[in-house]
Backbone:
């Protein structure tokens, strides 16, 4: 069998799975979806990648592998000035996506029944490409990411989500067990789900596979669509740091960073051994990432941003540049104007009274220095430059130079 025939066979099997079990199986609403994912908001994502608010909002977004349209729906509602294009290989799932977006009023989206490999059929380039849970299901992920990279505009960013092998070890074992028991019926996904559920029901409660399922996945896997996607998928490649960066390097794009940077801090793991932290300074950044996942092997996925140069970045280290910048509230913080809110990493932040006063004045017109002067004049407290930098670091405010 030739490579093209193998690719076609795998693609057909993947399409069949999602025609049988459209994924994700979220309910269809007649209103915008609740909550948010800041990675799908152009302003918040660009600010995370560059340290500044983007200069435009009338952008093109590609949802590469949209599935049942959960991500597409968010991309439309969170980016009111954007043109959104969504593709998927499963015709059945794509119909669900269309119905979902139509129901919630996400009407600025153009759908295409298309393989990611054939994305060149869509004209033009995109400022933001979102591809969640797709590349690891391709027979040739490198070919897939290279196809996407060609569609990323200069200065654009790409958000990628792929599986990690260390945190999915038990899943891999169950996948193989189900496949063995299915035999010639492999590819009958309903049969695979039934076998998998019977296995879990039969194994002792102290079995490692059962315990991992109950700890991490059982709540979502009550739905057959989720169970099938996890345990009977016909094509999956799980990454570690080394193979992940082989994929990234093959794209020809720049690695911007993981979207959960706090997880990748060695200092958190080795804070009781400063001499070991000192030794890590001799390692490359990729070696440090590898060390983190070896010491904390609960990595079930990697979520990160890539970019095509030139991508301007601001660090705001100079006081003068920070003082003349214009601040605005990040659109994806949750809880303001209360004293307690969630930052971009879903960590609880407790604001001081002065910080709240500062944030209330961030209207996109006044500069940082003008706001400091205003709240100092009207109140009895002052806000330091370091406190403002912390608001920037926490992604609570966005700055325009």
Residues:
């Amino acid at each position: 069998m030739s490579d093209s025939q193998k690719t076609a066979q795998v693609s057909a099997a993947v399409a069949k799975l999602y025609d049988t079990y459209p994924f994700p199986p979220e309910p269809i609403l007649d209103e915008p979806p609740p909550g948010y994912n800041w990675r799908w908001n152009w302003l918040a994502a660009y600010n995370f990648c560059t340290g500044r608010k983007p200069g435009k909002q009338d952008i093109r977004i590609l949802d590469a592998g949209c599935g049942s349209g959960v991500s597409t729906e968010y991309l439309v509602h969170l980016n009111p000035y954007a043109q959104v294009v969504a593709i998927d290989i499963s015709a059945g799932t794509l119909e669900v996506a269309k119905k979902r977006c139509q129901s919630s009023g996400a009407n600025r989206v153009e759908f295409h029944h298309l393989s990611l490999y054939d994305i060149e059929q869509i004209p033009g380039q995109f400022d933001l490409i979102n591809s969640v849970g797709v590349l690891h299901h391709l027979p040739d992920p490198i070919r897939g990411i290279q196809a996407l990279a060609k569609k990323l505009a200069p200065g654009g960013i790409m958000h990628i989500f792929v599986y990690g092998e260390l945190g999915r070890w038990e899943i891999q074992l169950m996948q193989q067990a189900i496949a063995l028991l299915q035999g010639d019926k492999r590819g009958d996904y309903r049969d695979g789900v039934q076998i998998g559920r019977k296995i879990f029901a039969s194994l002792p409660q102290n079995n490692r596979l059962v315990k991992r399922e109950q700890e991490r996945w059982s709540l979502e896997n009550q739905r057959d669509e989720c169970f099938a996607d996890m345990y009977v998928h016909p094509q999956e490649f799980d990454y570690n740091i080394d193979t992940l960066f082989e994929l990234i390097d093959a794209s020809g794009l720049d690695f911007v960073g993981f979207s959960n940077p706090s997880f990748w801090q060695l200092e958190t793991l080795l804070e009781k051994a400063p001499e070991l932290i000192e030794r890590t300074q001799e390692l490359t950044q990729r070696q440090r990432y590898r060390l983190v996942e070896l010491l904390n092997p609960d990595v079930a996925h990697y979520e990160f941003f890539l970019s095509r140069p030139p991508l301007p970045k601001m660090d705001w280290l100079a006081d003068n540049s920070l003082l003349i910048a214009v601040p605005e509230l990040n659109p994806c913080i949750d809880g303001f104007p209360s004293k307690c809110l969630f930052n971009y990493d879903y960590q609880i932040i407790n604001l001081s009274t002065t910080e709240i006063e500062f944030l209330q004045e961030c209207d996109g017109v006044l500069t940082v220095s003008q706001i400091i002067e205003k709240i100092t004049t009207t109140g009895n407290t002052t806000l330091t430059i370091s406190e403002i930098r912390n608001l920037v670091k926490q992604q609570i405010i966005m700055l325009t130079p």
